[in-house]
């Protein structure tokens, strides 16, 4: 039977290299998501402030991160800021910084929206029974915000995992970079190498992201019922 080229995945240490690259992708994504979750909650609470200066700063940060493409931010940090400050920044660390900044902005806006969607009388009721502002957030607002926030936060996490594929352009040896290396070394012997290697990457991303998407949808349906 003719070999269709799929065996390239299992030749030598190719599979091990691809899984190691996936580990780098996962590490960047998980650290960025963890940092974004913590800072995003804080940023979201800050965004609900009535102080004009804080509102202006928050909106400026949020819109700047949204307007500038992630790839441009990666280039700014990895090629620009490192040259200006004359420092060495590892590609993986630079990627985590950029994705954390992006995730914090997006998570913060989700938190802000969830807080603002709560009825005002709940905060007023908390004040009426003598709760402090911190207690109102801790016992009334945050539990309800978490319930509304989780599905949207899961979608954001999925987006962050998929977008980490851009880090290949600043030299991070993650799963796509490894794929490129395997394809370049095998393309003469196996012209269909790109199809099989990138197809395997598709499967890996699908295995990671699809269950998260399903879980998010189930939570959303469960909590809306």
TrEMBL record:
Keyword field: Cell membrane, Membrane, Transmembrane, Transmembrane helix, Transport
Annotated ranges, domain ABC transmembrane type-1: 22-216
Entry annotated with the keyword Mitochondrion: no
Domain of life, source organism: Bacteria
GO terms classed as biological process: amino acid transport
Mode of membrane association: Multi-pass membrane protein
InterPro entries xrefs: AA_ABC_transptr_permease_3TM (IPR010065), ArtM/GltK/GlnP/TcyL/YhdX-like (IPR043429), MetI-like (IPR000515), MetI-like_sf (IPR035906)
A single cellular component GO annotation: ATP-binding cassette (ABC) transporter complex
Transmembrane segments: 28-48, 60-81, 195-215
Subcellular location as annotated: Cell membrane
GO MF assignments: transmembrane transporter activity
Family: Belongs to the binding-protein-dependent transport system permease family.
Name of protein: Polar amino acid ABC transporter, inner membrane subunit
Taxonomic source organism: Clostridium cellulovorans (strain ATCC 35296 / DSM 3052 / OCM 3 / 743B)
């Amino acid at each position: 039977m003719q070999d269709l080229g799929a065996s390239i995945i299992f030749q030598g240490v190719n599979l091990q290299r691809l899984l190691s690259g996936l580990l780098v992708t996962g590490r960047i994504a998980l650290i960025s998501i963890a940092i974004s979750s913590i800072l995003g909650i804080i940023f979201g609470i800050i965004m609900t402030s009535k102080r004009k200066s804080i509102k202006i700063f928050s909106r400026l940060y949020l819109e700047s991160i949204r307007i500038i493409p992630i790839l441009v931010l990666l280039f700014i940090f990895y090629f620009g800021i490192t040259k200006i400050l004359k420092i060495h920044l590892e590609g993986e660390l630079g990627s985590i910084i950029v994705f954390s900044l992006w995730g914090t902005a997006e998570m913060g806006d989700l938190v802000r929206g969830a807080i603002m969607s709560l009825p005002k009388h709940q905060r007023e009721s908390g004040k009426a029974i003598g709760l402090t502002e911190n207690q109102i957030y801790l016992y009334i607002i945050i539990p309800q915000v978490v319930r509304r926030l989780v599905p949207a936060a899961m979608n954001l996490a999925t987006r962050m995992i998929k977008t980490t594929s851009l880090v290949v352009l600043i030299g991070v040896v993650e799963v796509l970079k490894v794929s490129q290396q395997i394809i370049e070394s095998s393309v003469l012997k196996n012209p269909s190498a790109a199809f099989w290697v990138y197809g395997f990457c598709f499967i890996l991303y699908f295995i990671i992201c699809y269950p998260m998407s399903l879980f998010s949808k189930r939570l959303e349906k469960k909590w809306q019922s």
